[in-house]
Specification:
The protein is α+β, with helices and mostly antiparallel strands. Helix content is about 15%, strand content about 20%. It is built from 8 helices and 19 strands. The protein is globular and about 65 Å long.
Amino acid sequence: MPESETLPTPAPETGLAPETEASSTPETATPPTASGAATPTAVNDRPEDAEAPPAGAGPSATEPTEPRVEADAPAGDDIPPIADEDGVLPGEPEDQPGLPVEPAAELPPGAAPATPGDATDDSPESAEIPQTDVQRTLYLLGTEVPPGAIDWLSWSASESFEGISTPTPILIVNGTSPGPTLCLTAAVHGDELNGVEMVRRIMYSLDPEKLNGAVIGAPIVNLHGFRRSSRYLPDRRDLNRYFPGSPTGSSASRIAYSFFHEVIVNCNALVDVHTGSFHRANLPQIRADLSKPEVVELTKGFGATVVLHSVGGRGTLRRAASDAGIPAVTLEAGEPMRLQPKEVAHGVKGIETLLDKLGMVNKVSLWGDPQPVYYEARWIRANSGGILFSSVNLGERIRKGEVLGSVTDPITNKRSEIRSPYDGRIIGRALNQVVMPGFAAFHVGIQTSEKQLRDEQQAAAATAEATESGQADAASPSTKAPGDSPAASSGPLSGEIEADEEAEDYMEEERPE
């Protein structure tokens, strides 16, 4: 993890309610909505005999504030391993306007104002203001999707060389009751099939009459790569390096810009589904930036799924959404080019549990308790070339010094072992294959005690303070010679500590983000 970052430890809570904006007036009445959650109700300072505003007056508190997204710099023509586009600034939420206040009715001449004792009913002094329980109409890709509707839209990112557009399916289920808008994306890498099936099962299992809010599903984001069974776009660029994109950049950057600004900005939360890549498999896991409280809350909704802290590399869909103020996580499960029923079922259960925790659906039972959170993860590498034979499985807990596998030279029959330098758990591994020296073979989530984590955080804070102090000294006049200052010590590469969906899966795990 970055040295200066102090991370909150997520509490093993099981409930997660959708975020709503509370009124600044302390005396509020909160009638329950269709989702079972209380809706903030503003009470205006007016005489008791004043009439209440009509139902539905004022904007709905459930309408999400559209995040402000800035386009990144145009991408160059060279294919970078990680996009150079900078992330965007988070959007600033708009102030919620209050309900209009009606003036008190004028009394006829000689009439005395009513007193509390004159009331003949048993109603409380502060009457509840009627609230609407109707879900809003969604406007997406030039189409109106009314409450209670299921729609199938087409997003066309660009034209092919023949001048023919390539429509990509976007599925929408808009519930009849108000709630958040959740976005599910898959196949940003065209060879990752598990997520396609997860999104399909979720979208076609939803009943708009029983849904609070809306779900937008994009089962195949990279349709160009999907048709060719390729991770990449036709120009060999990785789409997950170019978000939020640029309208004047490379073809990959333009596709990313179109999808991000036409689909993603309409969401209140995002789950981007991935698998391992290039003969690697991942244990079902959630990857999230745990330095952001709203993202921490989102991770609590996935039930029995491992959580790995990862800021996310620049250009990834998850980081671009998070930078735009949209809480986002990556759901990793399985390997590419295969449809794996077990991993698909795990992902579907996790997303269903999330929908329940967000108050969007009502499930009879929840799925398991939260799994451990790993703040560090490292790849263990082969030190010799040959054929890799794994001795451990995904999800297996390991001890320091334990043999994880071996590499055998097919010519000399020389065998070398790969041992773990950490206590932890196997959260990803390479499939048995021919490897070269330095090949990343096993991805280990490192077990960290609370004391160790606290000590590391304190050390990181002290290092950051010393760095800032050194920069201040450098900015001020000094009589020291250039050689008087000690050289900065070099720590481990951040990619060795923190691997992400766009890094460890195809040999970029050594690059800092």
